Automatic annotation (TrEMBL):
Residue ranges occupied by any 4Fe-4S ferredoxin-type domain in the UniProt entry: 254-286, 335-363
Record's keyword terms, sorted: Iron, Iron-sulfur, Metal-binding
Pfam family, one: Fer4_22
Protein's UniProt name: Sulfite reductase subunit A
Lineage: superkingdom: Bacteria
Record GO terms (molecular function): iron-sulfur cluster binding; metal ion binding
PANTHER family xref list: ANAEROBIC SULFITE REDUCTASE SUBUNIT A
Keyword RNA-binding appears in the UniProt entry: no
Organism, as annotated: Pseudomaricurvus hydrocarbonicus
UniProt keyword Signal, yes or no: no
Length: 373
């Protein structure tokens, strides 16, 4: 399909077309002090006219003054919470007439449509797919939600200071399949979206919208915006060469750089909760006082928790140093051995939401410097 133009004033028609098709639309909304992903009922729910200022341990919303719908970058939370709920009931059991009866829990997965998915986040979803869909232990709840997912991706035309997807080769331009791909353009004369249909159901949605053919100038302006975001990252202090990271980390397991970060890290797990690819979970069993009812719950967990690596005899990773090293080395090195690609997509959330301002790119560059002969 040839690229088309959707006028900004018609964006709500896209949202309503998705809702009329039975999708629960999730997109970026302003929740007081942050942009988060939540349900979208109309274009009025979108965080229009706001941009995010992000740095180490810092996040602030500022009015953009230009009316862009996607002038911000990634939201504070990740899409994973809608595909892999933070906490869910696995089964209930009860004792009745001396018999133990198990009641497995099932759910009717909603048809989800994600509006405003960035390229790095599409890569993050692909990484979670490797864990929950394509691994030998398939997660049926995730798989069911993922199967019906409709994605409306958005090319980035601005990078936050914490973004480093250009280093991880995951953005800012959308490179993975998406049902629709939008590029927002605001010039002196007009405000519009360059839109491409990436699937049959995406093209079916587009067929209901008032589109017009894109001119070569409009396509060039969209491309210029994407390259501007790339340039912001490539000329920034967080840009680095990601080639050979796995080998670098494997040969620096005893680097003094781990001691420095351990002195600052609180083991609070903020980075893993904000991360769009972290997938660890724990299982908890509960009973009532009578002993007649029991439940099993699954909930997100983190390798920064002291109990996470507990086995008979105690925890394997007892120090903050060992836990941070495990997290970063798994994310950037052993993940490649496990799944064939890095576990980091360069979204920068772990930098912004670390309360003590630990920066994974600074940590990596410190190890690179220490590794030099």
């Amino acid at each position: 399909m040839r690229a088309a133009i959707l006028a900004a004033e018609h964006l709500d028609l896209l949202i309503q077309a998705l809702r009329d098709s039975g999708y629960l639309v999730i997109g970026p909304v302003r929740d007081e002090l942050a942009i988060v992903y939540d349900e979208i009922r109309s274009v009025r729910d979108l965080s229009q006219g706001w941009l995010d200022e992000q740095e180490k341990g810092h996040y602030r919303l500022l009015p953009s003054g230009d009316g862009r719908y996607f002038g911000h970058t990634v939201a504070a939370n990740a899409w994973k919470k809608f595909l892999n709920p933070p906490k869910r009931l696995l089964w209930r059991a009860r004792q009745h007439n001396g018999q133990l009866q198990f009641m497995p829990q099932s759910e009717d997965a909603p048809q989800l449509a994600f509006l405003g998915v960035r390229s790095c986040e599409l890569h993050a979803i692909e990484i979670q797919d490797a864990v929950f869909v394509h691994d030998q232990h398939r997660d049926e709840v995730y798989s069911q939600r993922r199967q019906s997912l409709f994605t409306v991706a958005v090319n980035c035309t601005r990078a936050a200071a914490t973004c480093f997807c250009a280093s991880m080769n995951t953005g800012p331009e959308v490179t993975l399949p998406s049902d629709l791909v939008l590029t927002e353009v605001l010039d002196d004369a007009s405000h519009y979206f360059l839109v491409d249909g990436g699937s049959e159901r995406g093209r079916n949605i587009l067929a209901t919208l008032p589109l017009r053919a894109a001119t070569s100038k409009q396509q060039a302006l969209a491309k210029k915006g994407i390259e501007s975001a790339r340039q912001q990252m490539q000329t920034g202090p967080r840009f680095f060469d990601s080639a050979g990271i796995k080998e670098l980390l494997y040969r620096n397991l005893e680097s003094p750089a781990w001691d420095e970060v351990a002195d600052r890290c609180l083991s609070c797990a903020n980075c893993t909760l904000a991360c769009p690819t972290c997938f660890c979970s724990a299982v908890e069993d509960t009973t009532d006082l009578t002993g007649e009812h029991a439940e099993r719950w699954q909930q997100w967990d983190s390798c920064f928790n002291g109990e996470f690596s507990y086995i008979h005899g105690g925890s394997v990773r007892q120090t903050t140093r060992s836990r941070y090293r495990q997290w970063m080395t798994h994310k950037l090195a052993s993940w490649i051995d496990q799944f064939g690609h890095s576990g980091c997509v360069g979204c920068g959330r772990c930098i912004s939401w670390c309360p003590v301002g630990i920066d994974i790119t600074e940590q990596l560059q410190a190890i690179q410097q220490a590794d030099k002969p």
